[in-house]
Amino acid sequence: MYPSKETEKWVPPPWNDKDPLAHKKVSSLTINFGPQHPAAHGVLRLVMELSGESVRRCDPHIGLLHRGTEKLIEYKTYLQALPYFDRLDYVSMMCNEQAYSLAVEKLLNIRPPLRAQWIR
């Protein structure tokens, strides 16, 4: 391609030339966080309204943990049902197990020994 009268006068833009920023007023941004996000671990979905980098509003959806555990433990004893709660959420298995144990103890009016309470 040979220079013509039009291309002879062409000067390349400076190397640090930046396009002007788009001027669009955005008051807030709504995003979904989870359940596929690695930090959500598949059991939580957050619908967040952001203003810049600040969270203005957050609606948690926590019903994603259901795996039919109630039906599975329907005909089990209290001790046989305990391992099912370890499989609900791989991140907080001890929390689920302790919540179940505390609920059973409260329903049966059982008070564990002081040593057992401290071990927990």
From TrEMBL:
SUPFAM superfamilies: HydB/Nqo4-like. The keyword Translocase applies. Keywords: NAD, Translocase, Transport. Gene3D superfamilies: Cytochrome-c3 Hydrogenase, chain B. The keyword Transport applies. GO terms for biological process: mitochondrial electron transport, NADH to ubiquinone. GO terms for molecular function: oxidoreductase activity, acting on NAD(P)H. InterPro entries: NADH_UbQ_OxRdtase_49kDa_CS (IPR014029), NDH1_su_D/H (IPR022885), NiFe-Hase_large (IPR029014). One of its GO terms (cellular component) is mitochondrion. Belongs to the complex I 49 kDa subunit family. This is NADH dehydrogenase [ubiquinone] iron-sulfur protein 2, mitochondrial.
